[in-house]
Amino acid sequence: MAVEFELYELLGISASASQEDIKKAYKRKVKEHHPDKNINDPDAHEKFQTMLAAYEILNDPDMREVYDTHGMEGVARGAGPNDVDPAEMFAQFFGGGGGFGFNFGPGRRTKGEDEVIPYEVTLEDLYNGKTVKMNMEKDIICTGCKGCGARGNAKPKKCSTCDGKGWTTINPGIHRVARVQCRDCKGVGERLKEKDRCKKCNGEKVIKETGRQEIHIEKGMTDRQRIVLAGAGDQVPDLPAGDVIFVLKAQKHEFFQRVGSDLLATAKITLTEALLGFSRILITHLDGRGVKVTSPPGKILKPNDAIILRGEGMPVYKRPDEKGDLHVVINIEMPDEQWLKTVDVAALAALLPPKKPEIDPLPEIVDEVPFEESDIGEIQGTFLDQELGAAFDDEDDWEDDDDDDHIHGAPDCQPQ
Ligand SMILES: [Zn+2]
Ligand SMILES: [Zn+2]
């Protein structure tokens, strides 16, 4: 097994790929392998996790260097110059018997592997909280042999492939030696003859069991937050079971942007409202509530003015009665030309403030240039995306650049 290049292969890139290429490849693969899009593939979760782990390692330049020089074993050993414990991370990300067949050497494991499951949540979920019920299939200790794998009193024999060590070494490259789990005894160091194996688990010591599981997405939780179900992972003989860890992946919202505990939204008001004020539901909130706002008398709102609605932001995690603020940027809708045709323009001009006077003194040269409309929207859009991207999206690993995931497409905070 070409262990050393497996991570690059997983992402479908060469070992010389740039960090940018790695990011792109990952985004591509996330879409391709997302379990929600591969519901008929029983291995989808595992593939997805494995890919996630590959990305976590290759996206970190320090970790990538360790991986490039020392291979997966280096990463597992924690040869990294940074403070993260890569072995721990690796174990978590490769939980559930991920694709590599590594272990971390004899005596390293003190409990079963953790299973990390990405879980997509909407901003509504994070605002309101949510309980998710699911069926989860996991390994449990075989009830037939109580986890010994043997039939009756049969005793296993030392594995000849690995001489009882449970691992073998491979040389995937010059100066590189990697330790891989023994294929024949799966790291145990012992093997049972076919006829001596427990009939129920076929000597595997564990059997599959499907059970109901529940997770609670609490108000105010954040993107990437982990919900740990301690000991809910696969059972393994002689070790406490690992954990099942759900990692929240917050979807982008169509109208609200989250900045810590605060929310940011845009509301449209009419020109009349900008000049004469308003008192109406400005926003439909994430819990379906209408948020009514009355502008103070005599206040004129200008384009891009912002207002702050205190206590209408996100709930604070573990203190859900406390909430951040909601910042609303005001967009002013100009009346259309159809409207202009219906009014007395002279009377309107008399009511509105005067037009700008000509420059005085006039410049020596004045050129008359034809009026032509420009479709500048796209250029501005790109610019705005970059600005907002920089301000609110510093971690774009989770970013999904297509919008077809927005199943909650109902306009949430459009003007009423
Ligand atoms: Zn059994
Ligand atoms: Zn063996």
From TrEMBL:
Residues 6-71 form the J domain. Gene3D superfamilies: DnaJ domain, Heat shock protein DnaJ, cysteine-rich domain, Urease metallochaperone UreE, N-terminal domain. A zinc finger (CR-type) spans 129-210. GO terms for biological process: protein folding. This is Chaperone regulator. It comes from Coprinopsis marcescibilis. Keywords: Metal-binding, Repeat, Zinc, Zinc-finger. The keyword Amino-acid biosynthesis does not apply. The keyword Metal-binding applies. Residues 129-210 form the CR-type domain. It holds the Pfam family DnaJ_C. Residues 391-416 are annotated as: Disordered. GO terms for molecular function: Hsp70 protein binding; unfolded protein binding; zinc ion binding. Residues 392-404 have a biased composition (Acidic residues).
